[in-house]
Amino acid sequence: MKIRNQGENEKNELNMTSMIDIVFLLLVFFVMTFKVVEMEGDFSVRMPLGDSQGAADPTDLGLKLRLRADSQGRLASMALNDSDLGTDYDALRARIVSQIGSATPTEEDEGPELEIDTDYNLRYENVIKAITAVSGYKDGNEVVKLIEKIKFAKPRR
After folding, report:
1. Which domain of life does the protein's organism represent (predicted)?
2. What average pLDDT does range 12-32 have in this prediction?
């Protein structure tokens, strides 16, 4: 008995050598072009928990910053410990410097803590500007740190 169609029983193999070469070339390319970048705006920020059943005592907080928004989400006013500052971030920084001084905290003393209380519709850029104003400033070639511990209250609707 003769078997026909012997060609169908042959095994078709795929040459994987070129695919492996391409994978290694891509791997080498991405490893060589990867650049480690210093983190920008690395703030020590603690967000509030979902439930505030075990809320901390408000007397433990050093400073409280209230940011109010208008109907379009722009900054309407700022208040630091119930004293109105308008919308001037420089006035906010000056008030922080006058209250805590410009001395940088030591390792034992963690420094003052700030709680930021915002309206729900306030634009994010205003919160970042406020954090920048209270976290420190540049004096010549030296960076003066003011507040490093920042907490957020639940946004108000």
Report:
1. Bacteria
2. 90
What average pLDDT does range 109-116 have in this prediction? Answer: 78
Q: List phi, psi (to 5°) of 152.
A: -120, 135
Q: Alpha-carbon distance 90 to 131, whole Å?
A: 12
Number of domains in the chain: 1
Q: Is residue 46 part of a domain?
A: no
- Tell me the angle at which helices 89-100 and 124-135 cross, rounded to the nearest 10 degrees: 40
Residue in 152, 157, 156, 124 with CA at minimum distance from that of residue 64: 152
pLDDT digits (tens, 9 = 90+) for 62-72: 788 888 888 88
Instruction: Give the range of the structural domain holding residue 131, as residue numbers without chain letter.
Output: 61-152
Place of tokens 């791997």: 27
pLDDT band at 57 (very low <50, low <70, confident <90, very high): very low
Distances (CA, A) of 134 to 63, 98, 114: 11, 12, 9
Check residue 156 and report its DSSP letter: B
